[in-house]
Each structure stands twice: as C-alpha cells, then as structure tokens.
Amino acid sequence: MLTALRNAFKVPDLRRKLLFTFFILAVFRLGAHIPVPGIDLATLNRQIEQRQQVGGVAAFLNLFSGGALTNFAIFALGIMPYITSSIIMQLLAVVIPRLEEWQKQGEVGHRQITKFTRYLTIVLALIQSTGLVFLFHSPENSPVGADVVPNFTPPRVALIVLTLTAGTGLIMWLGELITQRGIGNGMSLLIFAGIIAGLPGQGAAVYEQLKIIGSVIFLLIGLMIVVAIVLVEQGQRRIPVQYAKRIVGRRMTGGGSTYIPIKVNQAGVIPIIFASSVLYIPVLVSSAAPWKGMREFVERWFVNPATVPYIVLYAILILLFTFFYVAITFNPTQQADYIRKYGGFIPGIRPGRPTAEYLNKVLTRLTVPGSLFLALVAVVPSVIAVITGLPAQTFPFGGTTILIAVGVALETMRQIESQLLMRNYEGFLK
Question: Are 229 and 407 in contact (CB under 8 A)?
Fold first, then answer.
C-alpha cells in the first residue's frame, strides 16, 4: 500500500488532485471550528468542556456536521440539507414527468436537476438554521445546556441564519469542487472527513467508561465489522455476456466475451444516508417548532437509538431504500436492450425479455442479502445500547459511521487505483 501511495504522488496530475482534495478537506475542517458571529463564545466553550458527549437530536445532527453543531460553527448544518434535497428530488422524479425526462436527457438534464437541488438546499438550510437559533437560545433544549444566543434580536437572528445558510452553500461548493477537480465524490468525502474527525473522541469516551478490557473488546468487534463490510463491498456476481461477430463492409468486428458485474451491495452507503435523512426530517421540523411536546416526541421515537421502535423503523427504511435505489440505478430492461442492440447475449438465455427477467432475478437475489447486511450493521450500536445500557454514540465502530467511512474509503481507493493502472502502476487492491 505504501508503494502504491508513493506511486500516486509520482504522477503529476494525480498528485495535484490528491493535494487539492486534502486542501478542500482541511478548509472544511477549519470551518467546523469557526463560530458564527453573535453568540456567547465563553459560555459555549465552558459548556462543551463540561459536556463531553451529547445525545438525541444534537448527536444525530452532529454526526453529519463533523462536530460543527456543538461548536455552533459556520458549518454547523453540515451536508444534511444537500443530502435531504437530493433525496427529495430523486423521489419527485418518480412522480413528476418533467424530472423523469431530465434524468433521461444526460448531461443537460442533470444540470437542470442539480440547479433545483441547490435551490432546495438553500431553502432547507434557511429553515433549519432558524430552528437551530431558537434551539440554542433555549437552555432546556440546547445541545450544550445553556443559552448561547443572549442578544436575541431580529437583526442578530438574521445574521446568524444567513451565516449558517452561507456555510451550507459553501460546503455544497466545496463538495462539487472535489468531484470536479479532486479524487472521489466530494459530498461523500466531506461526510467521511467529519466522521473520521470524531473517532478519537468516541474512542476516548469508550475507554473512560469501559477501561482497557472493554475497549479492547469493542475494538475487536469493530475490526470484525470492518472486515465484513469490506468483504461484502467487494463481493459481486459476474454475469457472462457473449458478443457475436459482425461483418461491417469488408471488416469483421465484434466478438469476444465480457461480463456484467452486479455487486452484493449494489446501493453502497446511499440507503444508510437516505434512511438517516428521512429520520432527520422530523428532527428538522421539531427544531423549528415552538412546542416542547413535539420535540420530546421526536427525541423519544425518531432520534433516541436505544429504543426498539427506532431500531425497527431504521432497519425497515434501510431495506426499502436499498431496493428503491437499486431499482432506479440498474434497469434490467434497459440493460437487456443494450446487450441485444450490440449483438450480445447471455449464454443459455434468449435475448430481449428473457434476458431482462434473468437480470432482474439475479439482482433481486443479490439485493436481499445486501440490504439485510446493511440494516444489520446499521443497527449494531442501537442493539448494543439496548443490551448494555451504554449510549449508542459511544460505539464508534458500527452503524452509519463505519458503513459510510469504509464505503467511501473503498470507492476512493478504486478511483485512485484506476488512475494508477492507466499509467501502468500497481494499485492498492491486489
């Protein structure tokens, strides 16, 4: 691996992309520690020192902001408004014909969808930032347990809301910069950076509560989960495709064989993010609502992971979103048409409709264990919390965090490896 990393920095173009990605991630982490103007910074720092760990809504939102929420930083909203707006646009594309047409138009339609996704992100950021201001102004509901917005006047509130919204817009721009000029998917890498930044603190919390023996056991469980995730992420079913030879003019073209790789976890970490975002919608509404009873209800049933209803709802959402995302990203009928159009066929399967039915059958059989695995790993911290009574946030090697971290790391490594193999260098994956 060290040799492959050294080779990556030998290639000028790849070295520039890697350094640019590291620079953007550093800017993102810097923004997670710059507080917004108009808050009581001394009270905030004092309360953070006293409260080593937060739970409930704060812990849920803090995951995707990389710790910026409890710091009330300019990036406190994190990437969640963009993720939520992306999910809303994908769901609307199923029921709105115009959006469906844009999805089929290629790059032109993609630009239109991206534009409306950005607009919706800003709207959600405005709503959520307003809710956060009221949340941090209320001592009994504040994640830090104190009023850190003492001068609660309309101009001050407007300044904070605009700053948080602008921070979300900046995060969105940074993610797109990484995608365009760096390595990997920008939004995924920003989430990855926030998760990795929180692991040392979570590890320290585990050590303080369970000491050395309990920490070693947690570490071993975490390593086994990581190995299982890597095995499932790398697992795939290769469907052979044979292409017939064709005579074009005086030349014979085509022929040969290839395969269609269908992964066990075809959806990757997207269903986890989707499910978290759906559970996040009640949190968004309750944070802006003035009713204490509504916030308590959301805290109990939609945010607290140490409850059986939360575990069941979270697992069901992951299963549903896995099948939904696989259905919209891999179309067996369209794939069968492509194979027939270019003179290909699957050995033993007739072209056309039988091929589509065969692909759909294989895809369904692979998606079932893949979705069950995702749901199982995602609810591991919650199950441990129910059994042991420990807060779910103290288990750093499970659930959403480790699935996203491992999935994004593997995908980024694949992109780096493809760049190395194009230049005749040995890659990371043997």
Answer: yes
> Do residues 221 and 387 make contact, with C-beta atoms less than 8 angstroms apart?
no
For residue 427, what are its two tokens? Answer: 């890659």
Q: Is the dihedral of CA 183, 189, 190, 194 positive or negative?
A: negative
pLDDT in tens, 133-164: 877 776 665 655 667 777 778 888 888 889 98
Q: What is the pTM of this model?
A: 0.74
What digits encode the pLDDT tens for the residues 161-191?
Answer: 899 899 889 988 998 899 888 888 888 888 8
Intra-chain end-to-end CA distance of the chain, in Å: 10
